[in-house]
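Internal QA ticket QA-208
Title: Verify multi-chain structure generation after dependency bump
Assignee: T.L.

Test input:
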Amino acid sequence: MENLTPYFVAVATVPAGNRFRGYFERLDRSPSVLLAEPPSLREMGFDMRTLDTPSLSSSRDYWQVENGARKVLRLYQDGTLLFRGEISPDFLAWAQPDAWFEREPILNPVPLVEVITTFVRLYAALADFLLQPPPTVTFSFSVRNGVLPSGARVSVRQYFKHGIENVHNPRTWKIHASEAEASVSPPLADIVERPDHVAFGALRSFYALFDAQDDIIPFVDRDGAAPRVDVEQIRAL
Amino acid sequence: MSTDKLVAALSVRSLADLIGLEEDETFDAKAGVGYDLDTETGRLELAKDVSSFANAEGGRILLGVVTEARMERSVDVITALDLMPEASLPTARISGVVREYLYPPISGLRVGWVEDVAGAGLGIGVIEIPRALNEQRPIVITRIAHDGDRRRSIVLGLATRGGANSVPHSPRDLHRLLKRGIDPTKDSLERIEAKLDEVLSQVSPAEAEGQQERETQRMAELRKRIDDIVRQ
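Actual output:
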């Protein structure tokens, strides 16, 4: 039976011909160990951690960690990192009552921002193992099955610290199609040295899939030369 | 830390101190008696939760507390007490389900009722689950099948504690774990491929003719990988 669960998918890729050094190792510093212990911002956050032990696929194509259906992370030897996050009240629509979610599936801005930020930070750490430092890395973020069988569309909303502004009729921005993708290709140097700036750029392109302006993206420092995700605000939650 | 506050609250029976605690890898909280033991689904849910703690570092399941999801953190927090008299806690049934549905038996597991210090004969249920000894692991979930007059047990699944959740392993995952234990060549192959990796890295990359074709193939492969992870 076809899987109609809505998912968020994040991908990081580099130009063809690259590979990870020490890909099959399980040493203290190796790409697979980063899957087991990815960078995180806080305890009990919404991030890349799965508490799983990395396992190599039977085809030897990828390392995988997972946390039930909520999160799956795969790392390929050619430098590709894939993340699948479930859009459900158990993860990316966290704290939305189940019955409400079926009528109007809304991405919780807290996990959305934290997941994209920690995905970029994870790749920043993995990039150290690439045999040939690429000039750029392409990040793409997509929604799959964004239109539920009921016709309800996955949407984004503003963040209000004490819940949502109007419980019965929140302002939301809906995705246009069941499958939609946004991508950015920042220089490797930016990813490694300024990952939170890269994360903001990624979030801006993702929110644009919903025709939402970037001023509704929470936890952003707009005071510097360029906007960035302010991870201290996330840590303080 | 939630664990210290939880233990302190239970030891002095000051159950109001549980309010505000967040579920984590050491405890789970349920309203009412927690599980519908009259249904197979409810019994399996209990078995899954108990075994997930035993397969991790041990923990407790509190019965008779109300929780809500925290908006900004991936946890549920205790918001109220839903106290019950001791007679309402199906202690024997809970113990029976755990004995019947889990293998091997978990040594030291306890099911009890803690009366609130305020008295009035009301309290909460607590299932205390020790960490399973290494030689006992993993604790697997079994199911009773009736074959004529005979009762047989078959393995149904395996669960572990992941943060504040009890996560059942998928059949694919369980199969992989079982295979890992009987594949003697895997480590050798991985060492060989690690060495090959080192050798290949010393070869200078050539400018590729047909780079466009390679890129097209790469994008097609990427699409296939994405479709595969979505389908899992």
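Spot checks passed. Chain A touches chain B through 50 residues (CB under 8 Å).
Status: verified.
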